[in-house]
Inverse folding.
């Protein structure tokens, strides 16, 4: 009897292909999405360190997160500028390093091939029902998973902020969120848009057989507020007023020039202070669209507070940064965390990921320090399920 292995029996030289996972981006040709795709390719290839990626730090070692090299990108968008060209624009504006678009051109092109038309668009989708649109978006997702032979996919909304819906109709962000659930994909809302927070989706969101997280990524001004607010509270200093101003350009600036969209954005900023301090202090946040700034943003805060014996004092802060560069590593973090959570059978809202959001899921603290501790604990739980 022959002792040689049959053609169907694995040998010592055979290798089992590593599983690959999809990251489906809503707003896939925008600045944040382009930076995430280019940045993932650059870090995976060793061209740049993973600066800003919390999941690449020691507490997440051996948590079973998908590797960056295993991620495959696609998405929905309503614009047709190819990702390689969009990356060139970002490099020209100083967002991406010079030469990076050329270095990762293959990965950008591959992701661009997997981008499908979003919507609804006036004229094109006028006759399509809500359910038909959700079906189409869900089919795009399932086709992506099948075509790329993926072990799973996560949907991440990084599109421009939309105004709060004025009636019972599902806005685009909620159509995409419903499609993610219908396709059996984890979902992340990195924007202030409605997404799964629409009343018509509340029951589905609560009982979804997939994990989902957030609303509105915490990248700059609110990140600082989630640190300073607890500081004032813990030092028993009385905050009398907290005012802020944002100057920004790019697609986000243009979208937030709409007062309704700006109001949706500011709600999360104000909620952090109200939740931390017990009540919202006097003052508002103003957002000004300055197209010349491109993807760069300047945020000022003026904090008036009382000290011992009623002494009146002021703290002023200035935050200058690039929103796309701040957001992209967090998008990659969240994609990996939700993919891992899904693979180990976790479902429903994940308040453990409140570290990343202005408006986290119910049960999350508003303090960044407490949120980080919950995130590290979550990493340990994922590790323990290996």
């Amino acid at each position: 009897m022959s002792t040689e292995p049959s053609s169907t029996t694995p040998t010592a030289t055979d290798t089992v292909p590593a599983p690959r996972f999809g990251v489906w981006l809503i707003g896939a040709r925008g600045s944040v999405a382009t930076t995430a795709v280019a940045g993932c390719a650059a870090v995976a290839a060793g061209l740049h360190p993973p600066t800003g990626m919390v999941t690449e730090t020691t507490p997440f070692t051996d948590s079973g997160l998908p590797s960056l090299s295993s991620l495959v990108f696609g998405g929905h968008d309503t614009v047709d500028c190819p990702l390689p060209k969009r990356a060139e624009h970002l490099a020209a504006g100083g967002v991406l390093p010079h030469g990076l678009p050329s270095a990762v051109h293959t990965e950008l092109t591959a992701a661009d091939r997997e981008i499908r038309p979003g919507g609804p668009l006036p004229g094109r989708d006028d006759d399509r029902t809500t359910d038909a649109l959700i079906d189409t978006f869900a089919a795009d997702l399932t086709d992506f998973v099948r075509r790329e032979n993926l072990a799973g996919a996560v949907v991440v909304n990084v599109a421009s902020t939309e105004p709060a819906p004025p009636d019972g109709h599902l806005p685009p962000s909620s159509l995409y969120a419903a499609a993610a659930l219908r396709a059996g994909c984890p979902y992340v809302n990195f924007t202030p848009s409605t997404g799964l927070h629409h009343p018509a989706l509340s029951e589905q969101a609560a009982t979804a057989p997939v994990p989902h997280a957030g609303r509105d990524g915490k990248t700059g001004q609110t990140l600082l507020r989630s640190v300073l607010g607890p500081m004032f509270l813990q030092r028993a200093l009385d905050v009398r007023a907290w005012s802020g101003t944002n100057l920004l350009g790019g697609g986000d600036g243009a979208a937030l020039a709409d007062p309704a969209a700006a109001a949706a954005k500011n709600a999360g900023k104000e909620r952090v202070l109200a939740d931390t301090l017990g009540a919202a202090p006097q003052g508002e946040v103003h957002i000004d669209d300055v197209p010349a700034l491109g993807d760069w943003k300047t945020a000022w805060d003026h904090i008036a507070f009382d000290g011992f014996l009623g002494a009146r004092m002021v703290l002023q802060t200035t935050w200058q940064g690039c929103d796309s560069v701040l957001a992209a590593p967090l998008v990659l973090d969240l994609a990996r965390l939700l993919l891992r959570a899904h693979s180990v059978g976790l479902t429903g809202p994940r308040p453990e990921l409140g570290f990343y959001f202005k408006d986290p899921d119910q049960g999350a603290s508003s303090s960044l320090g407490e949120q980080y501790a919950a995130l590290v604990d979550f990493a340990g739980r994922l590790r323990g399920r290996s």
Summary: Confidence is low (pLDDT under 50) at residues 1-7.
